[in-house]
Design a protein that fits this description.
Number of strands: 0
Number of helices: 12
Largest sheet: none
Structural class: mainly alpha
Helix content: over 70%
Distance between the termini: 18 Å
Radius of gyration: 26 Å
Shape: elongated
Strand content: under 5%
């Protein structure tokens, strides 16, 4: 209900393009599933190499198999990009047209109490943030869900449940951290958009009132006001940058702890003979694949928070 309320103005577009999104998402899931095969192949290859049960021809076949999978991934990846990112670009264009048409239907009084800078920010920054949510946002959400579930299932069922539990322990901390910072991001992003409006507004007023400024020799004070607005915009952006600057390295750090656990725990198991070297190689490759969805969750939360902040502003 609340979700539909926020998206009420995008309904027509989304129902018109639902097949593009659906086919794009199916292609995306196919890509994700195909990507799960190479680590397994490399693991098997490592094991056959360690116990010398393989000849050059078989190694060549494994190589061709990996190249074949890569080609399929490339084809489907192109397809989902065209469908999902393409639709998001069309959405941006459609929404901007709709917004402009709506502005033209408003009474002159409306423009007396609405700042031009605000309206300009809606047509540029806000619509861009919505496009990011409906393009990359959709992709990364699907990606994160599919990759993390399938990878974890493979790690648990075919490699080693104990090792998987150990290595995944740091990851929930990452999810909690990202959610907490996401709330802050939405708050600061709203302030950034408002500061951008102030800056646009000042620029627009100064340019359209340049004759008045010049005839009263007000250039200095006009520049002063402009600098203040500009500084405010930078300060708000810096606040946002500080959170980003903290969030992404922190995610990388937590990911490294996972790798460390996998190497220590998995290495010990290989030495004790409870895990094959090939399985450890496959496991560490899968773990590497899991780090990306975890980082993507951070990005998605960030992008969706921005998109929601912008949709709300445009709905108003």
């Amino acid at each position: 209900g609340k979700c539909m309320q926020i998206l009420r103005h995008l309904k027509d577009f989304l129902s018109q393009h639902k097949w593009n999104y659906l086919l794009g998402i199916i292609a995306l899931i196919i890509v994700d599933l195909l990507q799960l095969l190479p680590p397994k192949i490399i693991g098997t290859l490592t094991d056959s190499l360690t116990n010398n049960s393989i000849d050059i021809a078989q190694i060549r076949n494994y190589g061709f198999l990996i190249i074949g999978i890569a080609c399929l991934v490339a084809v489907f990846r192109y397809y989902w990009r065209m469908n999902i990112i393409g639709s998001a670009r069309k959405l941006e264009c459609w929404l901007r047209g709709k917004l402009f048409e709506h502005l033209e239907s408003m009474t002159p009084e409306f423009f007396n109490y609405k700042k031009t800078g605000d309206l300009m920010a809606h047509a540029t920054n806000d619509i861009q943030a919505i496009r990011m949510s409906f393009g990359p946002g959709v992709i990364m959400t699907t990606d994160a869900i599919v990759i993390s579930i399938t990878t974890m299932v493979i790690m648990f069922s075919t490699i080693n449940p104990k090792l998987t539990l150990w290595a995944l322990m740091p990851l929930p901390i990452m999810a909690i951290l990202v959610t907490f910072l996401g709330k802050k991001i939405q708050k600061y992003f709203k302030q950034v958009q408002e500061a951008f409006s102030g800056l646009s507004d000042h620029t627009q007023e100064s340019i359209s009132g340049i004759r008045v400024i010049k005839s009263f020799v007000r250039e200095k004070s006009s520049l002063q006001n402009f600098s203040t607005a500009s500084e405010q915009y930078v300060n708000k952006n810096m606040k946002l940058a500080v959170i980003h600057g903290f969030m992404f390295p922190m995610i990388g750090f937590i990911a490294s702890i996972s790798f460390l656990i996998a190497l220590l725990q998995g290495g010990t198991m290989v030495i004790n003979g409870t895990l094959s070297l090939g399985d450890l190689v496959a496991f560490i490759t899968y773990l590497g694949m899991l780090i990306w969805p975890m980082m993507a969750i951070g990005w998605v939360v960030n992008s969706l928070q921005r998109g929601i902040a912008s949709i709300k502003r445009i709905n108003d």
